[in-house]
Write a structure and sequence with these properties.
With about 110 residues, this protein is mainly α. The chain is built from four helices and no strands. The longest helix has about 35 residues, at about 30-60.
Length: about 110
């Protein structure tokens, strides 16, 4: 359920960011709508981080992962990497990308 919720929230945040990026106008209403969509996307990203972190910790605690677990683990790491990239946190991006590369060897 944690992986499903993280995926769901990640998809909502991606949709909100896409909608915000489609707004090209410079009118005050357009600027406000774009800012509102970005704020909502950031809130959903913050929620996603909570669920994705829980999932990552769960997978890392397993003695061995089945292929489907490894796939979900890598998806969670990718989501976290993309979220922290959107939040301009290169240190966290590098951390999760390194974990994702290490997961290939599991």
């Amino acid at each position: 359920a944690t992986v499903l919720m993280a995926n769901h929230l990640f998809n909502i945040s991606a949709d909100l960011l896409t909608d915000a990026n489609l707004i090209k106008g410079n009118k005050p209403d357009d600027v406000k709508k774009k800012a509102d969509l970005k704020a909502k996307a950031n809130a959903k990203m913050d929620e996603t981080i909570v669920y994705a972190d829980k999932a990552v910790k769960y997978f890392e605690a397993l003695p061995a992962m089945k292929p489907v677990q490894k796939a979900n683990y890598k998806i969670m790491l990718d989501h976290l990497s993309e979220i922290y990239n959107a939040k301009n946190n290169p240190k966290k991006v590098a951390e999760y990308e390194a974990k994702n590369k290490a997961a290939d060897k599991l």
